[in-house]
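Sample entry (336 residues):
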Amino acid sequence: MDQASDDLPYRLLALLSDGLPRRITTLTQHLSIPESELETALARLRAIGLEWLDRGQGAIGLSRAFVPLNAARIRERLALLGIVASVEVSLELASTNSELLERARRTSPGAAPICVLATEFQSAGRGRQGRVWHAFPGSSLCVSFSLELPRALGDLSGLSLVCGLAVRDALARHRVQAQLKWPNDLLVAGKKLGGILVEVHPLGSERTVAVIGVGLNVHPDERRDEALAAAPASLAVTDLESAGAGPGIDRNHLLADVADTLSACLPAFGSTGFAPFQTDWNAHHAFTDLPVEVVERGALRARGIARGVDSAGRLVLDSDGTRQSLVAGEITLRPL
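Predicted structure, serialized as tokens:
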């Protein structure tokens, strides 16, 4: 699924991604293809949500310039960071998490400590509880990481919280100070910047493959706002560009930084579990000491004051004079 030199849609995307106008004849000559093949490749890009403008005189250009995801550039960045990883980038996938989970089920773990799979477009991107993750090419980062952890399947409490801390650290390198919303969201000024979906596959009794899906809004996109408007219970959204990173974000560098911070956190979690991360996580929880409500399967379960998380990553809630600890599962936390 890597970008091979004969992957015509990716080669075309690389040419158009700077947003400058290109004549149809220039494109066919550069790619050494007939116009019919160019039209097929353009249709493929249009199908995944890329939009371009008619610039007149037989020229077209993308409606917004962006840097495409590129496996070679990601590997180069990871090498500078001292990270050994298997990296693949696809133009389109149903779900990066589902793909890596399926690989874990049918094959033995790879030689690289971390496997990275990113895509420009997910046709079936998922969040927690089966929610749809709305992302569009160029404006979002959709990536999954898989690695082995020396912990049993039932001993992974708090894993998604540790991953949230790692992604937060990566965002800080891009001048964005995010907060965490239990158990798996990243917020800026109360607006959702991204989310994390952790899924696991057991390898015997003492080892587990963890697949960590990260979805981040990178640039403003009206289509994302329109899609979320149909879900009134959702938080308002923001993106890295609007949150302080500015317009010059290279998603290849951002992805490598997330891989770097995950590589720093997850071996420690594999050895010690969540407890050493508790204080740091609580320091960045958006709703600590604030009134919240807890919804389970669409029904109100409790209202109270959020007190952060305990050493196992469970939400601590003071409600009607009683303190209780809640496991994530089908629970959703909402501010009051």
